[in-house]
Automatic annotation (TrEMBL):
InterPro entries xrefs: YjbR, YjbR-like_sf, YjbR/MT2646/Rv2570-like
GO MF annotation terms: DNA binding
Entry annotated with the keyword Cell membrane: no
Keywords assigned: DNA-binding
The name this protein goes by in its record: MmcQ/YjbR family DNA-binding protein
UniProt keyword Cell division, yes or no: no
Alphabetical list of PANTHER family matching this protein: CYTOPLASMIC PROTEIN (PTHR35145:SF1), CYTOPLASMIC PROTEIN-RELATED (PTHR35145)
UniProt cross-references to Gene3D superfamilies, sorted A to Z: 3.90.1150.30
SUPFAM superfamilies given in the database record: YjbR-like (SSF142906)
Length: 117
């Protein structure tokens, strides 16, 4: 997926918000918590980073095309260095999962406010 396609998909997720921070990094959040980052070319953040479930972090961070995300690996984030290793459907699945992991960590009150289960 292109950064533009990732942007459109992330904005379509329930209660997702988009902002630009850190010298041009596009940041997607749910309930004020980040779930995906799109770095501009040459930025230290990497092209695409997202949250993954803790139980998947070790395997995913060493899979072909991935690495631990700069600055965020301690919070179980991965960087997709080579987007061609995933189909668009696989990329969307990882992004949807990232959104779900972060949304699940929100308080019940916050999830209710956002219309999330």
């Amino acid at each position: 997926m292109t950064p533009k396609q990732v942007d459109a998909y992330c904005r379509s997720l329930p209660a997702a918000t988009r902002t630009v921070q850190w010298e041009g990094v596009t940041v997607f959040k749910v309930g004020g918590k980040m779930f995906c980052l799109i770095g501009p070319p040459g930025h230290s953040v990497a092209r695409l980073c997202f949250k993954c479930p803790p139980e998947h972090f070790e395997a995913l961070s060493h899979a072909k095309g991935f690495k631990p995300a700069p600055y965020l690996a301690r919070a179980t984030w991965v960087a997709l260095e080579d987007p061609s290793v995933l189909t668009p459907a696989e990329t969307r699945a990882y992004l949807k999962q990232a959104h779900a992991v972060v949304a699940a960590g929100l308080s019940k009150k916050k999830r209710a406010e956002l219309g999330l289960k």
